[in-house]
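User: For a benchmark we're assembling, each entry needs the component sequences followed by a predicted structure for the full assembly. Here are entry 17's components. Please fill in the structure.
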Amino acid sequence: MTDPLLKIEELRTWVGSGDRIVHAVDGLSFAIERGETFALLGESGCGKSLTALSIMRLLPDAGVIVGGRVLLDGVDLIGLPERRMRDVRGRRIAMIFQEPGASLNPVMTVGDQVREVLARHLGLTGAKADRRVLELFESVGIPDPARRLGEYPFQLSGGLKQRVMIAAALACEPELLVADEPTMALDVTIQAQVLELLRDLQRRTGMSILLITHDLGVVSEMAHRVAVMYAGEIVETAPRERFFGQPAHPYTRKLFASLPGPGARDGRLAVIRGTVPPLWTDFTGCRFADRCDRSWSRCREAEPTVHFPIPEHAVRCHLYADGAADEASTVSAGGKPAMSSDHGAAGFAKVHHPLLEIEDLRIHFPIRRGLFKRIVGHVKAVDGISLSIPAGRTVALVGESGCGKTTAGKGIVRLLPSVAGSIRFGGVDLARLGQSQLRGRRRDFQIIFQDPFASLNPRMRVCDIIEEGMTALGVGDTAVERLARVEALLEQVGLSPDMSIRYPHEFSGGQRQRIAIARALAVDPKLIVCDEPTSALDVSVQAQILNLLRDLQDRLGIAYLFITHNIAVVEYIAHEVAVMYLGRIVEHGTVDEVLRSPRHPYTKALLSAVPTIERTSAREVIRLTGDIPSPANPPPGCHFEPRCPNAMPECRAAYPAETRLSSSHWVRCLLYEQQ
Amino acid sequence: MNLPVKFVLLWTDALVFAMIASIAAFTWYTTRHEHLRAPWRKVGRSATGMVSATVLLAFVLIGLLDTFHYQRALPGDTSSGERRYAPEVLSALDALSETLRTRQERTFSAPFSAFAHSKETITQPDGTQRRDYPRLKYGGAHLNDPAKERVPDIARGALQGGAIAALLWTLICAIVTGVAAAKSQARFADVSGNLWRGELEVPLRGILVALGIILFIALPLVVLSKHYHVFGTDKVGQDVLYLTLKSIRTALVIGTVTTLVMLPFALALGIMAGYFRGWIDDIIQYLYTTLSSIPGVLLIAAAVLMMQVYMDTHPEIFDSVTRRADFRLLFLCIILGVTSWTGLCRLLRGETLKLRELEYVQAAHAFGVGPWRIMVRHVLPNVLHIVIITTVLGFSGLVLSEAVLSYVGVGVDPATNSFGTMINSARLELAREPIVWWSIASAFVFMLTLVLAANLFADAVRDALDPRMRALFDVPSLRRRRRRAGPSTPRVAT
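Assistant: Structure for entry 17:
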């Protein structure tokens, strides 16, 4: 404890933006011990990535370190000349970035990129370097490393790219690895592989890891100690057990409470009202005060200092000042509101007549080659799925990226030109309708997209955006009528009506997603396809949107087809779940059936790979090897067979048929067919 | 109808006025929308942008003056109620530079010279003949002994012009500072201090300095041009300064009207190709690939020559030389426009291909919004920055291509003054002994200034409008703060 590897004292980084200076990192202090994983947790925009870049001194041009020290083994990195700093980067501190695709040079082979690091820092070249690269690739678990050396980044999958990044980072055996959201762009099964790899490497080499993430699950799996960042400051630092057992800061507690999960199923998620304050404001008092349920006058007047409930646990909150120390113990951890709601199974026990019935939906994209654009094959994005969505219920479509779930969603609302199979909606087969006939039906089904920044036209005002659908589909006769409806809709989604004359760029991600929801609601749809509506949002904002979607369902009886890869969200919002793998549904059932007693090996692996906060020792994690095969060339027989831990010879013969396990639960796997 | 003049609206005049009207409408629309105004405000804050805009405005002013055309009434009997007008079409610029236009020498003369450029046989009053440089008819004609009096006279004229310029400039500076002070409600001295230290938001210092330089160059020239040919005269004795001034309008018209011709092609075809894809895209792509693979000069030469033949066989269409020249200028703009839309079209197609996959376009699809409406409401506004950048950057290229085409001989009508025709004639002038350099030099200087100003302005516009170039961070202001913050938080170095 006396000699930490990295010690940061009062670090301040400012980023200039026009006339406003953003105090992105504002007086940050922490220390990382040798061999420790230190997690920096925070929502987007709280300054955690800029902290990492400040440590590496890789700030963007406009970012300036205006004060503080970054001590690596007692040497202040901020005072070092750039030339010596280059010896530190990569050699002693290495960094891996969020987006593995963007951090590898596309025109260099991956072997050369690792070799470059070796040549720069260790002077290794030639055969020696090649041997070392091979060793590194083996140690990060890249299959067939000798072949991979000469490949280019585009030939590797996301998970493999991240492994190459890790190999390059580890090339010189750094003492500290800065990992900035290393798994954000990866699927859960791949994320589990990468996290396992990092843990394993740490065990072997004894390096320290600074893990920057927004995901409480990842923190719980990886960290020894945790620091929570909010608005440029660390508000709480604690060892892992203490942090998950007794979170102290009101912000941390709210974060826990806003996580969707099995416990929250029957109630509403706790939300943190408002958003992170802009970092160019001058703060007087606590930065969280405006969003805190427990703030009182003192919070707004005096900036809280750091208090220590126990020596290892630091909290920046007035609640833990001497006078309020007793109060702290009476606060119940978590604070999940126990609310009764009719949203659960009880409220909808009546028979659900299907609103939408999909039968054998196939969406194939032709692959064209050559001079005459001959069709040489098909990408079978969606390869025969059947699904029915009852009115007023939520069906979740779960799967990893590339499994065709988004394509299925777009196909159902007929955003794709041609689909095969049938989509029966109110007695009409949408798949047979032409564009003009379809126009009349479009009122009934709408779609909400994943990225709220791309789904609103930046050049249109909010009222024009919401009104567009009404004008196109003839909802509301006069302009006045439509405007009144726009204002009513904005109120319905929790925005104020006077926002209607503003432009999208003035809104935060959560607010934009509300606008997108209002736009979909404008035409009174019976079904909304939600394509990962919360995956671009922070946890606290995600809770607001999920609550809103559920409220709307309760009030208006809308059915949702909820497309997501986030199992926790599924647990909270869905009634039924369909698990997709490579264009087909492999398991279908009610939420309880699928999530509590998964049958298909893929579902089991998927569920076990999700990082959870409760680190139960009994949880057996099924590690899947390899990546999802290409949908252009799926494996023969069961698509999952090459990765399946329970694969049998018969699996290669043919795709398994549906096996009914109960009236609502079915699975496509030979394991159950024989029973 | 008994006016002493008759206004004449040439084809290009009408287009120029239409363009000014549409720019005014665009400005009006922009100022009412904050998100559109913001990038332009950024242009307003860029020193290079504003200085080059000042220079450009000076050129545009000259070009505009040259766009108001009229015919003078002929003196004579007006009692019949019908005035007769001179066939010659003049412009406001001609009226202002009457002396330059009318004081025509016989042939070449050097700048500020009182003598012709080459020796001639002069018959002296006593009947004898000798070969010498003859005195010019107008240039330096007021001097008795040019050898002695010329230099002091020029200096006097320059000083006089400089004094007027100084007076005018001080007045402008005072007015600008006064207005700025009144707007910010600060003291005159404070504002003035800030202005000259360059600490105002709008770079007024740069604008005023540019204006000062323009005035200090222009006014002495104006004063001197009364008695001298400041830029010399050309082969037929026309004042080169006058030719240069007249060339500005041609350059501007070529640069802007061509854009006007090209835009509809590029916008409509580019967006349609990107949006519809499939066979529509194929057709449009074939079209522009074919067009851009034919050498532009060939196509233009063929078109211009064909038109030339048509004009020669139908002389009755044009009632004056000016109209004829104007028609040829317009035709050149059109043919340049038709051959130059491919680049922008390709850019727009690519951008539209990207935009059509964006989720807001998909959302509009989900509402059953029609394709044309999507293109107008969702695609067009989001590609406008590309259009503005390309057209502003393309302007200078077009000015240059006019010069090249005129040099080749398929450019503007010989009766139209343009930089191209000046350069073309310089071909022979440079081959003379002693060399005649002033014609090409003045064309060079004016064209350089115009094109450079246009390019720098385009750069400033692109920086402000291109979202990728839009720097998130305003570095100078940060540096200033950093300096201030420096002492309070000293860095610790080991």
